[in-house]
Design brief:
17 helices, binds iron/sulfur cluster, globular, TIM Barrel, 2 domains, seven-stranded mixed sheet, DNA polymerase, domain 1, alpha/beta
């Protein structure tokens, strides 16, 4: 592994979809070197030796701090022992209420795992967590490494102060197979132990079964083993999703590993991903002809059977409008269920997404609106009726009937 520090110009990425998250990638490249890694897609313009040469944004802590200061936030949790910047005393609680709405600092990795081996040496992720804590921000991480346990002290402090969640990716229960696809990441058993430790320490943690690898990781046996182990280690939630392979290196490297380790499946994979889909999705007709299971639906059904929640509860950062985010989350959830699980054409999915985004970004608190005002919002009647129902009753019948209402929003447990 070759660690290469450099000074980055930018770090914080925002999204037009939500005002409640920003995304950080403090590394470029990932030594875990998973053969299906989407970070190797041409669209990210990563260097050729992505799995070997790890570029570190050595000034990432400064960039995050500058960003937060510019937005008007202050490090009111920073103590005198901190070496990051000079200590300033913020004892007045009123200061908190005068701050702008916060957001979740998300390190979910597109082009890196924030706890890959280089982190052991450079501790950039730890420094970013320290800043999140100093400024009182919630965090959300995704990793395949038990190195995250090194920072359990800090994560606990963040969770007590605002919210900390660590999602762990597990794709294959069988460790021999797992090592083929994720050669330098922690073993599957170590990842489950990580969830267990995080939960024992009161930190939010769940499992991402992404990607579910067709023909290899999509058996009921593999998924059931992961889900029942997740339950055993007290994971809060599970998400599953399919394998996408975009044109270029991403697809090439994956196919190479199939050719080496599972040559019997090579032709099937070639056919399945021969459509050159712009998002790397498989050819649905070919998937059907192979009787491939829909990885989302299958994961959802297995979770229901095991009484596990197939959804990552929404973290509501301080200062955001609770009702608006609750409504937005409910609308996204209804759209998800109708589209991915019930395959229903009853509702206009795009309109639900548009309405959810609108509610999320609306500066006015919807709970202060009258029913008449809600009905004038620019959505169809079925959507405004759901909004009125949530405002009036703090309930959504559709979601309640599916046992999907109470866990929508994250609570500390
Ligand atoms: S851990 Fe994530 S970012 Fe790293 S190689 Fe694997 S898929 Fe890519």
């Amino acid at each position: 592994m070759n660690i290469q520090p450099f000074k980055a110009k930018t770090l914080v990425r925002t999204s037009s979809q939500t005002a409640t998250h920003v995304h950080l990638n403090p590394y470029q490249g990932c030594y875990h070197n998973c053969s299906y890694c989407f970070g190797k897609s041409d669209e990210y313009f990563m260097h050729k030796d992505y799995g070997e040469r790890i570029r570190v944004k050595i000034n990432a802590p400064e960039l995050l701090e500058e960003y937060l200061k510019k937005k008007g936030f202050i490090p009111y949790n920073r103590d005198k022992t901190s070496t990051l910047v000079d200590y300033i005393s913020y004892s007045n609680n009123d200061i908190k209420s005068s701050l702008p709405p916060k957001f979740v600092i998300s390190m979910f990795g597109n082009v890196c795992d924030v706890y890959q081996p280089a982190e052991k040496k450079v501790e950039i992720t730890r420094k970013l967590l320290q800043i999140a804590y100093d400024y009182g921000f919630p965090v959300r991480l995704l990793t395949k490494s038990n190195l995250v346990l090194r920072d359990i002290d800090l994560l606990k402090k963040i969770h007590q102060d605002s919210y900390a969640r660590v999602a762990i990716t597990v794709t294959l229960y069988d460790e021999e197979m797992q090592k083929i696809f994720e050669p330098n990441a922690s073993l599957t058993s170590e990842r489950f132990d990580t969830v267990k430790r995080l939960r024992e320490n009161g930190i939010s943690s769940g499992i991402y079964i992404t990607p579910v690898i067709p023909f290899i990781g999509d058996s009921s046996e593999n998924l059931s083993q992961i889900i029942s182990k997740a339950k055993e280690v007290n994971a809060e939630f599970i998400i599953s999703g399919g394998l996408t392979l975009s044109l270029g290196r991403n697809k090439q490297e994956f196919m190479d590993s199939i050719k080496t380790h599972f040559p019997e499946y090579l032709e099937r994979f070639k056919l399945l991903y021969d459509n050159n889909d712009k998002y790397g999705q498989p050819n649905s007709k070919i998937a059907e002809s192979y009787n491939l299971l829909d990885p989302i639906k299958k994961g959802y059904e297995l979770c229901k059977r095991n009484n596990m929640f197939f959804y990552e509860p929404r973290i509501i950062p301080e200062g955001q409008i609770n009702t608006n985010l609750l409504i937005a989350t409910a609308l996204y959830r209804i759209a998800f269920l109708q589209e991915k699980i019930y395959k229903s054409e009853e509702i206009n999915i795009k309109e639900y997404h548009k309405a959810a985004k609108y509610c999320e970004l609306l500066p006015q608190d919807i709970s202060s609106m009258t029913n008449g005002e809600i009905q004038t919002l620019p959505f169809s009647r079925d959507i405004t009726d759901i909004i009125s129902e949530i405002v009036d009753t703090n309930n959504c019948q559709f979601l309640s009937s599916k046992n999907e209402w109470k866990e929508l929003i994250a609570t500390k447990n």
